[in-house]
Design brief:
The complex is a heterodimer of chains A (313) and B (275). With 313 residues, chain A is of the alpha/beta class. Chain A has 13 helices and 14 strands. In chain A, β13, α11 and β14 form a beta-alpha-beta unit. Chain B has a single domain, classed as Thiamin diphosphate (ThDP)-binding fold, Pyr/PP domains (Rossmann fold). Classes of the chains: A alpha/beta (313), B alpha/beta (275). The structure holds thiamine diphosphate and magnesium ion. Magnesium ion (MG) binds next to loops of chain B. Magnesium ion binds next to loops of chain B.
Chain lengths: 313, 275
């Protein structure tokens, strides 16, 4: 297996890589270019990188204005400040006029680790998902993060890209196809459908092995685009398996789990159990300890899968 | 300024006020006070200062205008109609469910609107983004923005002020509509944002203070703004909220209230007399 790399790192590298191909690409930062990894782009294209200082609301609206004059702005900060602090600017300056702005939000979720609750945003998918026309991409590894960046550049309109701080194994190779709005079946199965996003895709794949050892066949679906959700795939997999588990590094309220429930409730009512942060705030700690503490593990997915299967009928 | 030009701008400004009043009356809602105070500035911007093409509203080299105080959309719509971006008749559809004229400006719906606004504090930042983009792409268009004095209580206005000075956006010219009133009362009583001149100067801006109803002063301010090549400019325009309609002048209550038929007719008659 290749070296571990965080999706935020892949994001910075992708910006620098695609900067050549897309000359209108510019990057805005709010004093976090070292952490968001946009510093890589800044180093290569210093005159296409603009620091806004610690003023995220202004940054979002500035990016909106810049996009009206033909630039493709990415603005970056932590998910907490992009989707939280600047929510209203994202909604009113960017999304309402459907402007071509990309939001590169890093440090999403519990895996921020030591910085603790103020920096562990588990609400960003919920806020972004509630905005009409917003596209939400949540890549599971570095390869997918790179593809997500290019897809966002080629998509005309607002895109929220969610990246993590934690270094992860790379699971997708150069043959992997990425299309906005298209979920990916990573493994077929028949007993339970595990629909995962972001770093929980890794846990879902591990859960599948454990379940297989117990004679349970789990289908694994990677949802890199939380909005627009691949409802066709979700409905098909739920219909086939009859039980669903969702897994995300986000509050179980308002994220992927909610989106899947909303989809299935009106189409093929199916038992759905959600793995995620259970409506609580995070805390400081080493990431593995926190993942354990908040149930963001393969073991919890396995337990929820069995419980979901038990609810079938 | 030549007498003939002044008379012409004055006539246009009065038409803008009449159009704004008609829009608000037709909708039975909207914001007349701040539309009246900014009308002379709007007339000067669109009929003397800005390089725009009503027949090609998205022309990429056009000068941009952002109504950061988006609630005064009646002044913007009346100006755009006066300039020929769309039919004046449309003003009577303001705020109706089947109209393109939303309560607050929608750039996707209305020809000539360069930025969607309505949430105070956001427009001036967007104007900064446009000015930055112009500099970055080597374009020579200028960006104008109208900011309310009440609006200047928003922290984001000062984030934008910092940004514009830091990035030397000399192609940006903001107009602060210093009419002294906001919704809950005089700005100095609600949350005193003054002195604007010293604040903007401290933030690194070129500051010009004028009477916002005097076309000579308006002209020299915009001319001086263009000569400043290393800083953004703010024109602090002392204005009268409700200007031109006697019963609205300096009245807090006319910030966001529509006239009844009688009041409308009186207002239109007073304005017509100024033509
Ligand atoms: C962020 C935000 N908060 C509150 C409002 C509601 N609001 C609309 S107009 C206004 C007062 C604005 O006063 P000022 O900026 O002085 O405008 P003007 O006097 O030119 O009409 C307020 C509070 C808003 N539109 N946006
Ligand atoms: Mg005011």
């Amino acid at each position: 297996m290749a070296d571990k790399i965080a999706t935020r790192e892949a994001y910075g590298n992708a910006l620098a890589e695609f900067g050549d191909k897309y000359p209108n690409l510019v990057v805005f930062d709010a004093d976090l270019s070292a952490a968001t990894k946009t510093g890589v782009f800044k180093k290569k294209f210093p005159d296409r990188h603009f620091n806004c200082g610690i003023a995220e609301g202004n940054m979002a609206s500035v990016a909106a204005g810049a996009s009206t004059a033909g630039l493709i702005p990415f603005f970056s900060t932590f998910a907490m400040f992009a989707a939280g602090r600047a929510f209203e600017q994202v909604r009113n300056s960017i999304a309402y006029p459907h402007l071509n702005v990309k939001i590169g939000a890093t440090h999403a979720g519990i895996s921020v680790g030591e910085d603790g609750a103020t920096h562990q945003c588990c609400e960003d998918i919920a806020t972004m998902r509630s905005i009409p026309g917003m596209v939400i991409l949540n890549p599971a590894d570095a390869a997918e993060a790179r593809l997500a960046v290019e897809a966002a550049i080629n998509y005309e309109g607002p895109v929220y890209l969610r990246f993590g701080r934690l270094a992860l194994p790379v699971i997708f190779d150069e043959n992997y196809k990425f299309e906005i709005g298209r979920g990916v079946v990573l493994a077929e199965g028949t007993d339970v459908s595990i629909i995962a996003t972001g770093l929980m895709v890794h846990e879902a794949l591990a859960a599948r092995e454990i379940l297989a050892g117990e004679g349970i066949s789990a289908e694994i679906i990677n949802i890199h685009t939380i909005k627009p959700l691949d409802t066709e795939l979700v409905i098909a997999s739920a219909s086939k398996c009859g039980a669903v588990v969702t897994a995300e590094e986000h509050n179980i309220i308002g994220g992927l789990g909610s989106a899947v429930c909303e989809t299935l409730a009106g189409a093929v009512p199916t038992p759905v159990l959600r793995v995620g942060v259970e409506d609580t705030f995070g805390r400081s700690g080493k990431v593995p300890a926190l993942m354990e503490m908040y149930g963001l593990t393969a073991a919890n997915i396995v337990a929820k899968a069995k419980a979901a299967i038990a609810l079938k009928k | 300024m030549e007498q003939a030009k002044k008379a012409e701008l004055s006539r246009i400004a009065t038409n803008i006020r009449m159009g704004a009043l008609t829009a608000v009356f037709s909708a039975s809602s909207g914001h007349p006070g701040g539309s009246m105070s900014i009308a002379d500035i709007m007339a000067y911007l669109y009929f003397s200062e800005m390089n725009v093409k009503p027949e090609d509203p998205k022309w990429e080299d056009r000068d941009r205008f952002v109504m950061s105080k988006g609630h005064t959309s009646p002044a913007l719509y009346a100006t755009l109609a006066e300039k020929g971006f769309f039919d004046k008749e449309l003003l009577t559809t303001f705020r109706q469910a089947d109209s393109i004229l939303q309560g607050h400006p929608d750039m996707k719906a209305v020809p000539g609107v360069d930025m969607t606004t309505g949430s105070l504090g956001l427009g001036i930042s967007a104007a900064c983004g446009m000015a930055l983009a112009a500099k970055h792409t080597g374009k020579t268009f200028r960006v104008y923005a109208a900011v309310g004095d009440g609006e200047s209580e928003e922290g984001q206005v000062w984030e934008a002020a910092m940004f514009a000075a830091h990035h030397k956006l000399s192609n940006l010219c903001a107009v602060l509509d210093l009419n002294g009133l906001q919704i809950d009362g005089p700005i100095t009583e609600v949350m005193n944002p003054t002195p604007h001149d010293e604040k903007f100067r401290a933030f690194g801006w070129n500051v010009i203070v004028i009477n916002g109803h005097d076309f000579d002063q308006i002209e020299s301010a915009f001319e001086a703004a263009k000569k400043c090549t290393d800083k953004p400019t703010v024109i602090i325009a002392n204005t009268v909220k409700g200007k031109g309609v006697s019963y609205m002048e300096n009245q807090v209550s006319w910030h966001g209230a529509a006239p009844n038929k009688e009041q409308y007719e009186q207002g239109m008659a007073e304005l017509a007399a100024q033509l």
